[in-house]
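User: Hey, quick favor. My workstation is busy. Could you predict this chain's structure for me?
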Amino acid sequence: MKLSILLAGSILTSAIAGNVYAQTCGAQPSCSDLGYTYTGSTSDCLSPALKCPFNTSYFNCTKKADTFYQFKLNWAWASDIPGKQDWPAYQNGIVIGHAHDIKNYGAFIIINGKKIGSLTGDVTQRSFFYFNISEGDRITIDADDVHATFVPYYGS
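Assistant: No problem, here it is.
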């Protein structure tokens, strides 16, 4: 009889202690702490919104405006690229321009050591170009008459 009372008492003590421990294990993080920062309409999300598991009025998604901003051209920071010189890209962006043929064998563009050309084989023609580059890329435009502009993206 004493053994059964002792056993019942230890089981009850374990249950109470376990229950108290479970209730005090830690504070629940907020939706903001988990990255769910938007509230309101999800109509401008590019994909289905991810809702906070603790409060479904908070969500996270890729917004159309945020995506456009990443690739919006920042013409205020545009800069010219000289010909026949190694030029390092200081941001993500685009290069646009044209170059005149080099002594009848064409104009070349070299990006990170990769030679692209001859873009034209006629001494009277110009080569027009447009390409995307990433921060740290190295560009050389091998031509006699180069008119090239680098335009960075706002979001980079």
